Amino acid sequence: MATKHEQIIRHIDRLPIGEKISVRQIAKTLCVSEGTAYRAIKDAENQGYVSTIARVGTIRIERKKKENIEKLTFAEIVNIIDGQVLGGKDGLHKTLTKFVIGAMKLDAMMRYTGAGNLLIVGNRTQAHEQALRAGAAVLITGGFDTDEHVKLLADELQLPILSTSYDTFTVATMINRAIYDQLIKKEIILVEDILTSAKEAASMSVNDTVADWYKKKKETNHSRFPVVDENRKVQGIVTGKDVIGQDDELLIEKVMTKNPLTAGKKTSVASVAHMMIWEGIEVIPVVDSQQRFEGIISRQDVLKALQMVQRQPQVGETIDDTISNQLSAADKSGKTSFDFEVTPQMTNQLGTISYGVFTTIVTEAANRMFRQQKKGELAVESMTIYFIKPVQMDSVIEVHPLILEAGRKFGKVDVEVYNENKLVGKALMMCRLIG
Prior knowledge:
The chain folds into 4 domains: about 5-60, Winged helix-like DNA-binding domain superfamily/Winged helix DNA-binding domain (Arc Repressor Mutant, subunit A, Orthogonal Bundle); about 65-185, Udp-n-acetylmuramoylalanyl-d-glutamate--2,6- Diaminopimelate Ligase, Chain: A, domain 1; about 190-305, CBS-domain (Roll), CATH 3.10.580; about 320-435, Roll (Thiol Ester Dehydrase, Chain A), CATH 3.10.129. The radius of gyration is 28 Å and the shape is flat. The strands form 5 sheets. It has a 6-stranded antiparallel beta sheet. The chain is built from 16 helices and 21 strands. The chain starts with a helix and ends with a strand. By secondary structure, the chain is of the alpha+beta class. β5 (about 100), α5 (about 105-110) and β6 (about 115-120) form a beta-alpha-beta unit.
């Protein structure tokens, strides 16, 4: 039977897009406490079902799929720009297709403004009105207001008209940054993208016996199973090692490994890879916020996903991607090395290479060395930077990684960094190999 929390989430999911939601209303409709309603609404917000806006309230929005995650709703725009809603509250759930900066004459501005757009403009009332009539929302910069008849028109057309104290350039930068961050999120593979769902994944009950494990193994050809209770909450995991030599009538809960490591749907695959490598496990149960069984993810699934990521072009580049792209291979004196130009964005407030960038360069160079030797990817277990000198911007540094040890699971790398033939950094890394 579904819990009250689940019932509230399902109720919110069934509400029409744009519907206003309140704690008191949910509590009254579903006969639950206001505390339970509040926690469920916050969970729904985290899952992307609703959005909360100051002085407006919480509204039901369209939950985004991975393929259109970079599109923002007007409700999200309000929160990004610390804005206020002057009119058209009923349209806050709508998605904007693009934004237009109104730094031109009115007739020229309207040629670029259409349905689903967001016109960013100052205190030009005529532009506000014409944009709304063209099907676009309006964002007024500089903290300005608009005429009352424009607000009424926004309400009538259900198109938001917003106001922010920021200037046009700052607002455009903030929205671009938000879209760019969403693009980066889109490229990150999460557990929910590759898991085997609970409907397809085999699991066992705490009331099953060792004999049931052998039966399940024969049916599925698997030997590792999450163990769940009557509420589908994960209580443990059972493997062949746990049942071997045990009496057939013994309950699974007596032999299982209790409190196993679990992952959520929104956990990144990279994090799960680290968990598996560090703990030496093959399968991780996937659970929701209430620890209920949602599926499983195996080491094989993780490795396939990581290999797929390497072959994908980055749409939204992270700082690590930028550093990696600037690191170029060089072959000097028969030894593999890498060149890197220290650009201004890679420096600290003093104009010298930042410590974080230095560690990323060292790690990436070591990773490439292992890839060249077909040793697979590495996960850094510990890193000691025992010598580092300031390197100013626009310098070109040479990175010389040297593999000291390379076993099946572990590696040890020494990295030296030179600038104008002078040693400026040394690091020693202990790594685990993912391969």
